[in-house]
Amino acid sequence: MDSDRIGVMGVCGSGAYVPYAAQTDHRFFRGAGPEGWQQMVANSGNLRSAEAAGAPAATFAVLPEKADADTPAPTADFVDYYKTPRGSHPRSTGDMVVRSADLLDQFDSFADVAKIAPRPLLTVAGTEAVTRGFSEKVVADSPGNAELFLVEGATHVDLYDRDQYVTPAVAKLVEFFSKHLA
């Protein structure tokens, strides 16, 4: 193994963690509205104290159990994946620890994305992905080392397991890694 030749790929949340790690390792959506988010952040300290006193961690479900006509399309897309046999797993609770809000509030995976340069960066997004803007911003904030590959018609979740969208994404990844790790 050559520890100086490392390629890394992140999907979904890992797509944010990968550039964050790459900013310092040279080898390689907040759903709540602003008021609700700020309330969660403010409550984090109280919850941390309660846990230190022996209370169980307070959690909340990230997604509803089922989507209906009033469910926003991106949320319904995640429900269709994570709450069905497509992507559910018996050990995945789908819950988030409420007190982690303050940690998430401090996390900006793309703050120093320019530090990745001159190493190459590829972002892949669906043209219909709710997260497409993050990928576009990463490329815009990069000093010429980043490329955005768009998969026509794909939502964020489509890129997890829908062959017609995954196939062109994988082909692009193979091309990218073959070129840059050859």
In brief:
This protein has 182 residues and is mainly alpha-helical.
Helix content: 40-55%
Order of helices and strands: HHEHEHEHEHH
Topology-level CATH name of the largest domain: Rossmann fold
Beta strand %: 5-15%
Q: How many DSSP-defined strands?
A: 4
The low-pLDDT segments are none
Strand order, biggest sheet? Answer: 1-2
How would you describe the overall organization of this protein?
With 182 residues, the chain is mostly helical. It folds into 2 domains: 14-28 and 110-180, Rossmann fold; 34-104, no CATH class. It contains 7 helices and 4 strands. The strands form 2 sheets. A two-stranded antiparallel sheet has the order 1-2. A two-stranded parallel sheet has the order 3-4. α5 links the parallel β3 (121-126) and β4 (146-151). The longest helix has 19 residues, at 34-52. The radius of gyration is 18 Å and the shape is globular. The model has no long low-confidence stretch (mean pLDDT 87).
Please render the helix and strand layout as text.
Layout: H1 14-22, H2 34-52, E1 59-61, H3 73-82, E2 95-97, H4 101-106, E3 121-126, H5 132-141, E4 146-151, H6 158-161, H7 163-180
Parallel strand pairs: 3-4
Antiparallel strand pairs: 1-2
Index terms:
globular, two-stranded antiparallel sheet, 7 helices, 4 strands, 182 residues, two-stranded parallel sheet, 2 domains, mainly alpha, Rossmann fold
